[in-house]
Amino acid sequence: MPDFYQHELITTIHDLQTGKLEQLEDMLRTATQQSKIGLVLPVTAADMRADPFVRILHELQHADYIDTIVVTLGVAPSEADYQETKSKTAMLGDRCRVLWTDGPQIQSLYNELIHAGIPVSTAGKGRSVWTAFGYLLADPTIDVFVLHDCDIVDYDRFLLARLCLPMVHPALDFEFCKAYYARVTDRMHGRVVRLLVFPLLRALQQLYPDSRFVQFLANFRYPLSGEFSLTRNLARTNRIPSDWGLEVGTLAEVFRNTSHKRVCQADLCRLYEHKHQSASLDNKQGGLMKMAIDILTTIYRTLASQGVVLSQDAFITLRSLYLRTAQNCIRQYAADARVNGLNYDRHGEETMIDAFASCVTTSAEMFRADPNGAEAIPNWTRVRAAFPDFADRLRDST
């Protein structure tokens, strides 16, 4: 999205339509002679069999600046799932390893941690990412860890190059880079970020104008993007949520563990398309409703950990502020869609906002009943203090 707007706290790296893939990859090949990159690809068995994953693998064959690729296979109960993943990723050669998180070897390692009081029993993307980080940390030559999803329909190496370069170029000094993009086909997608997160953050800014964390989150153009890159040190010190709060929880850890001047966001591509979650309006245990509740409770718990008092009256006010702000956004999105020739279902958007408002209340009740919630997975500093050779044994499990 070619503009020059810079937010207050973090640096924005725009796509000004001038960078060429060949130029970016030449810079990456030079930079990675000093700073090696490890790429993490969390994938389920279902996504492994889908067309986007195959496309990603073919593109990565030519990304020779990536030193190590770790495919973490989850929601894959059978040995056949593991063998099929290994067969598909064989085109990437020895630099690619498959971590089968449901397999007996890694499950045995998880059980060892659980018996020692380290909570890793909750399966999901968060645990898969955490496991891959541990695998990469056992290689002292890898300086930068990169993550992207495996259901990106229109994936190409330009996306990957723009995510990697801010972290390894010798003229730059960032410790964390978050992706942003426009999710558009014949209509606007990204309902959770457009209709929940953005208006909620504006409401929180009115309710808690002095909160630097809320201000920090509001600086991101797409806080729920699944793509980011970070330094070895942050990969070692950040805790990782195991639920749908992964993206917001990661930003909370970055806020806690590094300077805002060392954080950037990069526009990866003009358009971005991947798998869409069902709305699941009548089921708060699935689909977008579950995602919304996990995100909201993560935000509430992070604010509480920073000394913000979240009373029942505050949540009543927050819901009202959210509804008013979100309803104002409808007018803006309708205008944007009309001028860009997109379909826009105004009634459907209003219905989603009402559903998200109920999630604001439900998540508040859950927070007040259990302010701590499910524990985030401890960082690798703690794990390696308890089991100094654990990451090495994890590498031996592939």
Concise description?
The chain is α/β, with parallel strands linked by helices. It is built from 16 helices and eight strands.
Give the CA-CA distance, first to last residue.
40 Å
Would you list the SSEs in sequence order as H and E? EHEHHEHEHHEHEHHEHHEHHHHH
Q: Number of domains in the coordinates?
A: 1
CATH architectural category: Alpha-Beta Complex
Q: What does the overall shape look like? A: globular
Report the portion of residues in β strands.
Answer: 5-15%
Radius of gyration (Å):
21 Å
Q: In CATH, what is the class? A: Alpha Beta
What's the pLDDT, averaged over the residues?
Answer: 93
CATH homologous superfamily caption: Spore Coat Polysaccharide Biosynthesis Protein SpsA, Chain A
- Biggest sheet, spatial arrangement of strands: 1-8-6-7-5-2-3-4
* Largest sheet properties: 8 strands, mixed
What features would you describe in this structure?
- The chain is α/β, with parallel strands linked by helices.
- It has a single domain (11-275, 283-392), classed as Spore Coat Polysaccharide Biosynthesis Protein SpsA, Chain A (Alpha-Beta Complex).
- It has helices at 21-31, 45-48, 51-60, 79-89, 104-115, 125-137, 157-168, 191-207, 212-218, 232-237, 246-257, 287-305, 312-339, 346-369, 380-386, 390-395; strands at residues 11-13, 36-44, 68-74, 96-100, 142-147, 176-180, 228-231, 263-267.
- It has an 8-stranded mixed β-sheet, with helices on both faces.
- Keywords: Transferase.
